[in-house]
Amino acid sequence: MDETPFNNTNPEDESVVSNDFSTTLGALILGLVFLLGVPGNLFIVWSILARIRRRSVTTLLILNLACADGFLMALTIFFVVYLAKQTWVFGNAMCKGLFYLCNANMYASIFLITLMSVHRLVAVVFPRKARVLTSKKVVRRVILGMWVLVLLISIPSLVFRDVDIDKNEYNKTRLVCAPKHTLPRHVRFQYALETVSGFILPYTVIITSYVLILRRLRQTKFRRAVRSEKLILAIVVMFGLFWLPYHVINMIQVAAEWYEDGSDRKETLDYIANSSRAVTSALAFISSCANPVLYTFAGKSYIRQNGFAFMARLFEGTSLDQTETKKSRAGKEGTSTFESSNSAAMAALQNGK
């Protein structure tokens, strides 16, 4: 994730930390995100690890999502200091490492949400194959492979990032943690990769999954509102709303690189991207602290009865939805079989008479 594009020699690298309004707003948002996101996601992790013995696939994915979001929230304190001081004080290694970890957790979040949607698709559309495809062993391997993938795909943010010396509008020298793109194609590659692999492709899979799920539910008589369906759909919508502005700015940055230096369109696009980058990045961070709030609203009916264990009851409820559905179907099939066998027996007795 790219928080701050800088430098004086390239319009793409004009510093946003010199914009007082953007800097102040970004610091306030990130400070609030840190205060809400870190304890909120830690509470989710504690609820799942300490309160739930038998963890469903959905619960395992939510656990990984909370770990990714909580770790990302813990990093925001460095960016609050950066925006407040308007200079980078943590060194070059931290400059590269922090932005690399932010990118990795951004990818992890959207990939985990995508896996939730695909899991619901398999459970609803392919129920006979669900046990094999979504077994704990398979899911753990998929999650491990996902973490390896996000660590690899985030490498560009490690390569194209360095500490640089910059001067603000008052000619005061400061250090900035800036992207280092020596060629225009480097800019296009990094930002296009982020948006395509971290937003467009995952959301295409998510939307396709839910279209197929809704079509399947309409074809059957089973239309009971499944709790996990609503919860996962809310997570998907929340993530999209907060990350869309960030990826729009990415595409504006990419579009600017197709125009010649000094052209009016390039200058306009660069100005829009540079003046909006800090705020859209801060908004993107909000998605990682929004999930605990979302879970709290979803599980409010359990709070009075279960106290601090309400989150565990919520997640147990989402895992029971599918189980109860299968049991109820099996019960209905068993009842109909029993009734048909009884009627056949009665007919035989009558014929015997």
TrEMBL record:
It comes from the Eukaryota. This is Uncharacterized protein. It comes from Larimichthys crocea (Large yellow croaker).
